[in-house]
Amino acid sequence: MEKVLTGIQPSGALTLGNYIGAIKQMLKYQDMYESYIFIADMHAITIPQDPIKLRENIRSLLAIYLASGVDPKKNTIFLQSENIYHANVSWILECLTPYGELGRMTQFKDKKEKNANFSAGLLTYPVLMASDILLYDVDFVPVGKDQKQHVELARNIAERVNKKYGEIFKVPLPLIPHDGAKICDLVDPTRKMSKSSDNPKGVIYLLDDEKTIRKKIMSATTDSEMRVVYDMENKPGISNLINIYTSLSNLTIKDVEEKYKDSNYGTFKNDVADLVVSVLTPIQEKYYKLLESAELDKILDAGIEKTTSIAKEKYELLKEKVGLYR
Length: 326
Ligand code: TYM
Hints:
- This protein is mostly helical.
- The protein has 13 helices and 5 strands.
- It has 2 domains: 3-180 and 294-322, Rossmann fold, CATH 3.40.50; 200-288, Tyrosyl-Transfer RNA Synthetase, CATH 1.10.240.
- It has a 3-stranded parallel sheet. It has a two-stranded parallel ribbon with strand order 4-5.
- Helix 4 packs parallel to helix 13 (295-322), helix 7 (120-134) crosses helix 8 and helix 9 packs antiparallel against helix 12 (265-290).
- It starts with a strand and ends with a helix.
- 41% of the residues are buried.
- The structure holds ligand 1.
């Protein structure tokens, strides 16, 4: 069976962008492929984190996965930092990756602007991500558009290493969702909706209460045209709301344009808010029940056991190929 792997950083409260770009894909692919899902906690520390908050976020992310419908019977779910082979493989791959290639990554360039004294880990972050992916010989990596460049880097690394040392890694493909590849900020719809945004009004958090969700959507930036028409360039605000609507319903962009052709923005926004609330409310109810459950630890225990043995084998092979043995 073909394999998929993906992960999310526990670097803050999850957003609707994470749900549409990543979690919805997990739900789809868990029935089609052998699936590995993890909590990218080592990626989270590439920028400063409060230790107590980070630990809470790790548990919270796992509960969000489960509450959203990620089924522990269908997926291997694990915590990245518990599998020591990710960092070990990453080190070898770092030594096989040109510095210049990492400096060109868009996300690195953006994040270093925001973090004075940014860490060396911020630069090498995509290599750790390549290691996450390549350890498991996966066929596909479902991610939002912002992570596509990193998956492409993982492909390049795999190809380069295979060429130099013989077939070690499978070369994976990114899977990017159709309309939900990039959900944008509600206040500034030219920017990605992000966990680390400094204006919470533009971001729908998965745990926002109904009133807050409605308020944020009703006050989302739009334009003065009053036509529900998709045009990302000239009408980014309304196009973003259309993307949210189509991603959470079975409708296409054309269907939505047709449905709202005689409506004003208020009516459309109200329906978007209803839909978002109807998706998030049941997730939130399950989430709060799961958070205290001992099930969470059992799931991670099973996940680490399985992934450690797979990853160890790949690490040993890589070590041998590069000459790290006596
Ligand atoms: P992270 O935690 O930033 O985001 C998790 C997932 O959510 C997607 N995403 C979005 N999709 C659509 N619209 C948005 N506004 C939006 N914001 C985030 C991201 O594309 C991602 O799929 N480096 C990764 C985590 C990671 C990983 C991996 C992923 C580490 N190793 C290996 C896949 C495979 C990250 O920081 O994602």
